[in-house]
Amino acid sequence: FAGACASCHSGSPASASQGLPLEKSGATHAESARNLVQFILHGRQLPPGAASVAMPGFARLLTRQQVADLAAYIRARYSNEPPFQQLDATVNELADRAGLP
């Protein structure tokens, strides 16, 4: 988390203009890990001229296990929801679909 996410999502005043606070993200609170894993893998691309901030994807930088660990950490740290079910299977399915190692 510290190396990939904290600079934009730490909740500090310096990061407030960068990324959505993770406790406010629907992906953090969703029943399925699918959207959160998609964000971690592929980021968020914006159309030209959009007022929001894009997010890089980390598919080529993180292993599947690191993606699963990161999603589990975000869920535990920024949500009162129970752990994601079938998290490893979700990561593997989405990584396979994207042709990732």
TrEMBL record:
Its cofactor is heme c. It holds the Pfam family Cytochrome_CBB3. GO terms for molecular function: electron transfer activity; heme binding; iron ion binding. Residues 9-18 have a biased composition (Polar residues). It comes from the Bacteria. Residues 1-78 form the Cytochrome c domain. SUPFAM superfamilies: Cytochrome c (SSF46626). Keywords: Electron transport, Heme, Iron, Metal-binding, Respiratory chain, Transport. Residues 1-27 are annotated as: Disordered. This is Cytochrome c domain-containing protein. It comes from Aureimonas ureilytica.
